[in-house]
């Protein structure tokens, strides 16, 4: 299956609006010249409006870092799907930091995925094991469970394009921000032997093969190409390197070579 690569930059809790404007204005020329790859920038919610205006007329998409599943109401500090959809095409859901620091469960992630689809957003659903789970040889069990429960009840109508509006990001938690990355072959094996089969059980084989699966976890300009050469890795969810123009551009270029 020929899946178009995707590189998404997760800025996390970094960048004021002024900083975001400066960074994006530097990034756009280099990213614009890279065809054959979908490019997504995910700044903090406060910078979505500013970044949206800078990306207008480009082939670079905007994504949010989270949303809440309710359409509106007394949920202080949250952001609704409709608010995200005003500016964005993508939204990151179930990131390990949301799970670890804010207590998000697989059921919470599932509610958010359902809400994203209801508002024509493409969710980038994050799954991955902790260091403790990895060392206990529980990677397959944990990743399979997160995929099945996080996507439970999602239905595709069976058209040819089905699956293109869902993205999975496999992020071994012990690799995120540590400088320690899983080997490309290990990451590819988890996707091939756990994530694709889970998607197949949920949606059928044909749709499972259309869904893009990214790798995330200490991706850099130096190691990106090794990951992208693996047949099951369709791009990257990039953290710290997405805040550096040269590194993020290099990673994006590696996705199409």
What's the structural blueprint in terms of helices and strands?
Blueprint lengths: L5 E5 L6 H16 L5 E5 L5 H8 L4 E5 L16 H5 L4 E4 L2 H7 L3 H13 L3 E6 L3 H5 L3 H12 L16 E4 L13 H20 L1 H6 L1 E4 L8 H5 L6 E4 L6 H10 L3
Parallel strand pairs: 1-2, 1-8, 2-3, 3-4, 4-5, 5-6, 6-7
Helix pairs in contact: 1-2, 1-11, 7-8
Summarize the structure.
With 257 residues, the protein is α/β, with parallel strands linked by helices. It contains eleven helices and eight strands. The protein has a single domain (6-254), classed as Aldolase class I (TIM Barrel, Alpha-Beta Barrel).
Account of the protein in words:
With 257 residues, this protein is α/β, with parallel strands linked by helices. It has a single domain, classed as Alpha-Beta Barrel (TIM Barrel), CATH 3.20.20.70. The protein is built from 11 helices and 8 strands. The chain has helices at 17-32, 48-55, 81-85, 96-102, 106-118, 131-135, 139-150, 184-203, 205-210, 224-228, 245-254, and strands at residues 6-10, 38-42, 60-64, 90-93, 122-127, 167-170, 212-215, 235-238. An 8-stranded parallel β-sheet has the order 7-6-5-4-3-2-1-8. α3 (81-85) links the parallel β3 and β4. The longest helix is centred in the last third of the chain and has 20 residues, at 184-203.
């Amino acid at each position: 299956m020929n899946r178009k690569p995707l590189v998404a930059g997760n800025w996390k809790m970094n960048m004021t609006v002024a900083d975001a404007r400066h960074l994006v204005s530097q990034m756009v020329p280099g990213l614009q010249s890279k065809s054959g790859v979908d490019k997504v920038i995910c700044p903090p919610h406060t910078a979505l409006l500013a970044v949206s205006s800078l990306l207008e007329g480009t082939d670079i998409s905007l994504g949010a870092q989270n949303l809440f599943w309710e359409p509106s109401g007394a949920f202080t500090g949250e952001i609704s799907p409709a608010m995200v959809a005003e500016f964005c095409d993508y939204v990151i859901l179930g990131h390990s930091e949301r799970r670890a620091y804010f207590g998000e469960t697989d059921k919470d992630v599932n509610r958010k995925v359902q809400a994203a689809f209801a508002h024509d957003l493409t969710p980038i659903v994050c799954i991955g094991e902790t260091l403790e789970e990895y060392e206990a040889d529980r990677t397959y069990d944990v990743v399979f469970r997160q995929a099945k429960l996080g996507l439970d009840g999602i239905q595709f109508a069976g058209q040819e394009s089905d699956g293109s509006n869902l993205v999975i990001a496999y992020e071994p938690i012990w690799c995120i921000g540590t400088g320690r990355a899983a080997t490309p072959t290990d990451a590819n094996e988890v996707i091939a032997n756990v994530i694709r089969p889970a998607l197949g059980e949920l949606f059928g084989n044909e749709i499972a093969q259309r869904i893009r699966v990214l790798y995330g976890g200490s991706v850099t300009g130096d190691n990106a190409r090794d990951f992208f050469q693996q047949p099951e890795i369709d791009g990257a969810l990039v953290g710290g390197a997405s805040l550096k123009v040269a590194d993020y551009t290099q990673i994006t270029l590696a996705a199409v070579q």
